[in-house]
Amino acid sequence: MRKFNLLIAFVLVVALTISCSKDEGVTSLEDPLNIENPENSDLFKQGNGAPSGAHYNLNIIGVSKEKTADMTGNNGHRIFVSLWGKSKIMLIEGDDFQVLDVNGTDGEASFQLPNPDPDGDGLTSYSIWMRALGKPGGSATITTCADADLTDEYVPVCSAEYLEVERTKGKPRFENVSRTLLTIYVENEIVFTDGDGVEQTIPAGRYTIFDPIFEDYFWEYDNSGLKLLQLRFYPVPTDIS
């Protein structure tokens, strides 16, 4: 029985290695594709719903037991989260894509990524495609959030839009989730009194991650048994306005 279990473990490791071999070395997205209507182009002929070509791959892995080892630093293309319950994935602005803290089972992991829309024109320099993998069953909800400095107190503000993903039967297909994962949609204006007693307002609208109106952006990952979620970052623009 022990030999059989070791054989299964070996097969799983080989399969994961093969699935990631095309993009494990990619940390930045070179030569952004300045094209109109990219989803109607030859980029989308591989059949799984995602573009073809260079990309950064990130696997979010749900596990039943908390990781105890020190996992800070760049630890490949994976983040571990709790199989059940909420984990924060802090979003850190940087020049390329890197996992900074792989362990989200203690409540918080961190992932570095570039500002998707530094000029604020509503067109991103890269896009995110997502699919659920693994054995059918399990779901997760992902919400983009940040902290707002309200009345000398940081209060989380989460987008009114969120992703619900479920691993169903059949061949998994990618979908473009850039707008939901790269922006916070404030449905109603936020009115508050600052520390100096002055009334301030955060207008309703859509804010791209790393907009200075908020601080400490993160994805709130609420897992309900989903074991594997794959995100791919491609140099394809998306209109998020």
Polypeptide structure, described:
Mean pLDDT is 81; it is low at 1-25 and 30-45. The protein has 2 helices and 15 strands. It has 241 residues and is mainly β. The longest helix is centred in the N-terminal third of the chain and has 19 residues, at 2-20. β4 (98-101) and β5 form a beta hairpin. The protein has one domain. The radius of gyration is 19 Å and the shape is globular. The strands form 4 sheets. It has a 6-stranded mixed β-sheet. The chain has a 5-stranded mixed β-sheet with strand order 2-1-15-6-9. The protein has helices at 2-20, 178-182; strands at residues 56-63, 78-82, 84-93, 98-101, 108-113, 127-133, 139-150, 153-166, 175-176, 183-186, 190-193, 199-202, 205-208, 215-224, 228-234.
Count up the helices: 2
Give the helix level as a range of percent: under 10%
Lateral arrangement of strands in the main beta sheet: 4-5-3-14-7-8
**Beta-strand fraction estimate:** 35-45%
Main β-sheet description: 6 strands, mixed
> Segments where pLDDT lies below 50 for 5+ residues?
1-25, 30-45
For the CA atoms, what is the radius of gyration? 19 Å
Secondary-structure element pattern, one letter each: HEEEEEEEEEHEEEEEE
- Judging from the principal axes of the Cα atoms, what is the shape? globular
Query: How many independent structural domains?
Result: 1
Q: Mean of residue pLDDT? A: 81
| Structural class determined from secondary elements | mainly beta
- Tell me the span between the first and last alpha carbons: 56 Å
Question: How many strands appear in the DSSP assignment?
Answer: 15
